From TrEMBL:
<feature type="region of interest" description="Disordered">
    <location>
        <begin position="1"/>
        <end position="21"/>
    </location>
</feature>
<feature type="domain" description="HTH cro/C1-type">
    <location>
        <begin position="41"/>
        <end position="95"/>
    </location>
</feature>
<protein>
    <recommendedName>
        <fullName>HTH cro/C1-type domain-containing protein</fullName>
    </recommendedName>
</protein>
<dbReference type="InterPro" id="IPR010982">
    <property type="entry name" value="Lambda_DNA-bd_dom_sf"/>
</dbReference>
<dbReference type="InterPro" id="IPR001387">
    <property type="entry name" value="Cro/C1-type_HTH"/>
</dbReference>
<dbReference type="GO" id="GO:0003677">
    <property type="term" value="F:DNA binding"/>
</dbReference>
<dbReference type="Pfam" id="PF01381">
    <property type="entry name" value="HTH_3"/>
</dbReference>
Amino acid sequence: MSHNRWKTLRERQLTESYTEPADVTEARREIQLSMALAQAVYDRRTELGLTQVELGERAGLTQAKISRIEGSDTVPTLPLLAKLATALDATLNIALDAEETKVTFTSHHTDAA
């Protein structure tokens, strides 16, 4: 693609009339969901002070599988998500909305203050 053609495409994208193709929008949504899950797993694991190896042992998974989940390189199945939630001693909460995705782990135990 020549520079002039790229510039024209970029200018079209910046105008208000540009609409992203549906397949691109869907791919973006899938990536955002995968990244939200990856961040939630990482946050909960580090909150517990676990390594990827330790979490893998708790969940019956390999360190490589935990790494792929945290790197958003894979989207786990529901049974695998259940294993992760159990291993992280938490409830997995996923809120899906047209505009926002929120994935969190809520601890089963609260510290008494």
